[in-house]
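User: Sequence in, structure out. Go.
Assistant: Echoing your sequence, followed by the structure tokens.
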Amino acid sequence: MRHDHLISAAQLSRDDIEAVLDRAAEIADDPATVRERHAGTVLALCFFEPSTRTKMSFDTAMKRLGGETIDMGSVESSSVKKGESLADTVRVIEGYADALVLRHPSEGSAKMASEFVDVPLVNAGDGAGQHPSQTLLDLYTIRENAGLDDITVGIMGDLKYGRTVHSLSMALTNFDVRQHFVSPESLRLPRSVRYDLHEAGAQVREHEELEGILPELDVLYVTRIQRERFPDEREYREVAGEYQIDAGTLAEAKESLTVMHPLPRVDEIDPAVDETPHAQYFEQAHNGVPVRMALLDALLGGGRDGGEDR
């Protein structure tokens, strides 16, 4: 890859994406080949918001590359509680680690933090902004199930606050993909995201109902309505539970439809869907390990079995 930091999916070219996905596939096929590749490397996990999949998969990825992780812990138990700025926090932690993974509730925080460190920094979610490493594992899952060219993808749910949506929709512009966006009017894509998609040559097709486009879809990417992002609880209650998928919903779908979700889910996908061949969201989560191993390998460079140092 051509970047020291991964802050936004907009940084990624098709070549970047394919290089990471190809490497991830190699690692998934034979993890033993990279078992000690980054022995002695330390990855710092700096999570200012809760996380299960992202945090644990980065932890696992680094350890399976032979490295180690250190964890900032909760905000409540850190110096952030004493009023330490994000800039000072990452500058200190940079001295302990060879790379940082940062999740923070403020949009733009990862970009700002990256300006204060000289080691690679990965944005693991900045508020309603971006989540590029999630996008890479999403693309890997799509490629494994439907390919990445000449397909139709529907993205449904919270498109306003959904950082996974913002990242994925931009990354898909590198491929021959028709994108449809399904949401309540109040949760449509932000104007800035629509503008960026138009600038990248994508046609933004927006819908309030899934039924009319479902038979066309090769991939349906479902997101939860994110209660924690709403400034007004009443606004959340007005749309909560409005978009739900069950086995009956999928009756008109292609047999080959892939249903994805970045997780956690609340009530937007009925558990009965788990038993259908459409469901790929747990495999999608598992794909986070080889993809993040490939990403860390690319950002860190070098390793015991060759490659150039950063």
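User: And one key feature?
Assistant: The mean pLDDT is 91.
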